[in-house]
Specification:
With 643 residues, the protein is an alpha+beta fold. It is built from 18 helices and 23 strands. Strand 10, helix 4 and strand 11 form a beta-alpha-beta unit.
Length: 643
């Protein structure tokens, strides 16, 4: 009998994550229970009405209390196994003692709950009970789970597994972690893996591709982490060629070693639920066809929040978007699985981000490594490329990492804006089903204009440089991997909006020459007409000369949450804070620069539309060479030369 998924409890005593594992008020501690019989020492006897977590696998349910495992990490996502795996029946195996009433439930794709069966156990010693369950009803969605109620005495769950009678062998994975100057996060992750000895049974090697100057091996806790992992751990010293370079190195090393069935890609700044690694490997082992298995993203700052459940590409816009019927930032503590109907519907995705993504080695052999994108869109492109080759991606519930959410980053404004724009356009050239990318070029021009109206001139310049590089063709991609970042940082240094400082007092005093007209501050335009009117008004304002006063003093301070184009376009200068709240920059209106940027933006988008058919042909034809291990080895060697 193959274990598909084990019931687990939190690794650490963290009240913020309890609701992801059990649906009941809990405390930690073993103590003595009534299920153990009379206490021999009064001092060890514990009383209370809370459910007690006794370890990674066990809980004590006091008499008369109920605990539900209808939770993110412990309910069984039956619809995903029904759709993508060879499994057609499962067995719930429970290890119980004490006086326990166990009720088994299932849900439908509509989120409706149905009771399946009930078990009664009354014993002083641990017994095993099994429930056979079909997967036929789960074609649209649905989960299985169970609840435990303490009877006249405490009930003790010593463990529970969701199993299946299958004879496929267990696969193994090599883990690839790309890191850049985040030794604390990386060492914490390695330490957690070393403590999860049962998870390491399916891990062959752990490649840490260190591309930074603040080295992982110099961290004081690294020796202990390395000792726990033994010969599984391998540090690779590589010049900075971004996430796509680091993860491609892990793919390449896994191919060369020839030991693993899978390569598991993990960001360096995540906290992983170790059990998710086992679940991803097991799901991939039992998939009908070679399948990429991804993990979900939980918010590392608000740990009960499921930030991303699944993602797709909006083909006409050619932009990433939450999968249909899903929502960003869902708080499972406030709205748990049982009371959230949309979580019960099966969600199909186009790709899974590489914060946690398991890729079969067979897929890597057939579709190649990552495109040389440095960062941004590399994981999206890979999912689409694999999909076109017949290899699906499944974002598997119950496999997840905690990661910094997107709203805590400025990556659409800083140097990363170049890679976002360039790689989005290239991916559209390769795969868009619409003529000239559908609405993408129009939207790109609109976004460029919005940034210009917001006095974010450095961002506009980066986006235009991205388009100019797209027009060069695919030949420059590998060559630029080791040089482009330095160019972008030097370029940004020429723009006031990119020169951030940690203290607002380092800037001149915020003053206005005249107060707001009638004391009214700007308000958001409502409706399409008002939006167009505001944009045209902003353009007219931006071509007028700027007097000297707002060049000496910022007119307003704008918090990051308010830094919209329609607001910033109404001022001649403004102090704008960053997404993480650590610094601010002085945005200053520049009519000459505004005109020049808009003229270039219009010309470049027009040229790209005109040359689209030929560029699309060139980029598509270049894919095999760009993603080949042989071509990537040349880039790895060039990166090592940059250290």
């Amino acid at each position: 009998m193959r274990v598909l998924q084990r019931v687990v409890l939190p690794v650490q005593r963290d009240p913020d994550v309890v609701g992801l594992y059990v649906d009941a008020p809990v405390v930690w501690g073993r103590g003595r229970t009534e299920a153990d019989g009379p206490a021999t020492r009064r001092s060890t006897t514990r009383t209370g009405t809370e459910v007690r977590i006794t370890g990674r696998r066990g809980v004590v349910v006091p008499a008369g209390r109920r605990v539900s495992f209808c939770t993110y990490f412990n309910a069984f996502p039956a619809s995903y196994w029904r759709r993508w795996s060879v499994v057609d029946r499962i067995t719930l195996r429970l290890r119980l003692r004490g006086d326990a009433i166990v009720s088994v439930h299932r849900s439908t794709g509509k989120g409706l709950t149905q009771r399946v069966t009930q078990l009664d156990v009354d014993t002083r010693t641990t017994v095993v009970r099994e429930v056979d369950l079909p997967l036929e009803p789960f074609i649209d969605g649905g989960w299985y789970w169970f609840d435990v109620v303490g009877g006249d005495r405490d009930a003790v769950l010593d463990g529970a597994d969701w199993c299946a009678d299958v004879d496929r062998p267990q696969g193994s994975a090599s883990i690839g972690i790309t890191t850049f100057n985040r030794p604390n996060f990386c060492v914490e992750q390695l330490t957690a893996m070393g403590e999860a000895s049962d998870v390491l049974e399916v891990v062959d090697e752990i490649y840490v591709v260190d591309q930074g100057t603040n080295r992982v091996e110099d961290h004081p806790d690294f020796p202990a982490a390395a000792k726990a992992l033994g010969d599984r751990l391998r540090l690779i010293d590589q010049g900075n060629i971004g996430g796509s370079g680091g993860f491609s190195r892990a793919m390449s090393e896994t191919l060369d070693a020839g030991r693993s069935d899978y390569v598991l890609l993990l960001d360096d700044d995540v906290t992983v639920e170790p059990e998710g690694i086992l679940r991803a490997v097991t799901f991939a082992d039992l998939a009908r066809t070679p399948t990429i298995v991804g993990g979900h993203m939980l918010d590392i700052f608000h740990r009960s929040v499921l930030h991303v459940f699944g993602e797709t590409i909006a083909r006409y816009r050619w932009w990433m978007t939450p999968a249909a019927h899903t929502f960003l930032g869902h708080d499972l503590a406030e709205h748990p699985l049982r009371r959230t109907p949309w979580l019960h519907r099966r969600v199909d995705v186009d790709y899974n981000a590489w914060w946690m993504c398991l890729i079969p080695v067979d897929v890597v052999r057939k579709v190649g490594l990552s495109l040389p994108f440095f960062i941004k869109w590399d994981d999206i492109e890979y999912g689409i490329r694999a999909q076109k080759a017949g290899f699906p991606t499944v974002s598997l519930p119950g496999a997840a990492v905690w990661h910094v959410p997107w709203h805590s980053k400025d990556d659409t404004l800083d140097w990363q804006a170049y890679f976002t724009e360039r790689n989005r356009v290239i991916t559209a050239l390769m795969y868009s089903p619409y003529k000239r990318g559908g609405n993408m070029l129009k939207e790109s021009l609109f976004i460029t204009t919005k940034h210009a109206l917001a006095m974010q001139y450095s961002t506009v310049e980066l986006m235009l440089r991205a388009l100019e590089d797209v027009l060069l063709g695919p030949e420059h991609l590998h060559e630029s991997m080791t040089t482009k970042l330095a160019e972008l940082r030097a370029l940004r240094a020429e723009f006031p909006d990119a020169l951030a400082k940690p203290d607002i007092d380092e800037f001149p005093t915020v003053k206005r020459r005249r107060p707001p007209k009638r004391g009214r501050e700007p308000v958001a335009p409502e409706g399409r007409k008002a939006m167009v009117k505001t944009a045209l008004s902003g353009v007219l304002r931006h071509v007028r000369p700027v007097d000297s006063f707002p060049q000496r003093h910022p007119e307003v301070t704008v918090p990051h949450v308010d830094q919209t184009w329609w607001l910033l376009s109404r001022f001649d200068s403004a102090l704008v804070t960053s997404a993480d709240g650590t610094k601010a920059a002085w945005y200053q209106r520049d009519p000459a620069r505004f005109r020049a940027l808009l003229q270039r933006a219009t010309a470049l988008h027009a040229r790209l539309a005109y040359e689209w058919p030929e560029l699309s042909r060139r980029y598509r034809a270049a894919i095999p060479e760009l993603v080949s291990p042989e071509r990537w080895r040349e880039t790895f060697e060039a990166a090592e030369g940059e250290r």
